[in-house]
Amino acid sequence: MYPKCLGIGACILGVAVAQNLSDALSSNPDLSTLNLLISSSPGLLDLIGGATNTTLLAPSNEALQKFNNSPEYMEAFLQPGYLHALLQYHVLLGTYPASAFVNGTTLPTLLDNATYSNLTGGQRVKIQKSGDIVTFYSGLDSRANISKADQNFTGGIIQIIDTILSLPVNISETLEANNLTAALDALEQVGLEDTIDAGSDITLFVPSNEALNAAASTIQNATDATLKALLSYHVVQGGAVGYSASLKNGTSVETLNGGSLKFRVENGQIFVNSAKVVISDLLVANGVIHVIDRSEFQVSVTPCPLN
């Protein structure tokens, strides 16, 4: 069980009066640093505090102290708009008590700035729930847990978290950070990394290093044009981003090279054609990455010309 935040309603003649965001943050000593950050950012208090039906994932003072010691800290204050976007990313659209989070789902946030969120419906946070423990996954697979739950305010609810969320970065950076070097090298070889980094609403099924090593002969014997078409068979662009919870048994999608991927779900395990998803929902600035245990180079698909 989480420790519950102290009630924040002020009682007047026995009637509880909910506090606005500024008062709610001010009344909680564990959120004094966050309160300072939000109140000192022009327009941010009005944006977050004025929103309704939201859940604020509020980094504790200790979480923000850890952030101060991270490389991301300097970027937050040197890059225009970064801090503003980072704090928007901590606001979920919808009011979620700790008990309402569902394992394996992704939830949209207030962050819709195209510089940091090049996808329809705003950037997302992934939820993992084990018993009473709720973990939020963000960019570069960063993780934060609820440390104190369910503090109400006029705009919704506050969940205090023990680590600040990280903004998702582009696909190339995410592949490198997750040591998916074989796929990154292949994408760079044929010039496809710029296409998938710049595109919106991307779902990328990335073969693991082992999977691509197993297809080494195919890769080595392919021309760059053929290899580009084969790699693009792993890319879906446009439409709803394919987060794992939305990949339903028996459904299919069209890929960037005009081929088709079909999904199968067995005992909770997702398969893409014959490949098994071994890591799901790596969040990126313009969509999501799933790691699969084999490449689909051997599937009979006529490569389509790519622009």
Average pLDDT number: 90
Overall morphology: elongated
Helical residue percent band: 25-40%
Strand count, sense and barrel status of the largest sheet are:
7 strands, mixed
How many strands in all? 16
Quote the beta fraction.
Answer: 25-35%
Distance between the termini: 54 Å
Number of helices: 12
Radius of gyration: 21 Å
Low-pLDDT residue spans? 6-15, 298-307
Order of helix and strand elements from N to C terminus: EEHHHEHHHEEEEEEHHHEHHHEEEEEE
Q: How would you classify the helix and strand content by structural class? A: alpha+beta
| Lateral arrangement of strands in the main beta sheet | 4-3-9-8-7-6-5
What oligomeric state do these chains adopt? single chain
Architecture overview:
The protein is α+β, with helices and mostly antiparallel strands and 307 residues long. Helices cover 28% and strands 28% of the residues. It has twelve helices and 16 strands. The strands form three sheets. The protein has a seven-stranded mixed sheet with strand order 4-3-9-8-7-6-5. Strands 11-10-16-15-14-13-12 form a seven-stranded mixed sheet. The chain starts with 9 loop residues before the first strand and ends in a 15-residue tail after the last strand.
Which short descriptors sum up this protein?
elongated, about 300 residues, disordered C terminus, 16 strands, alpha+beta
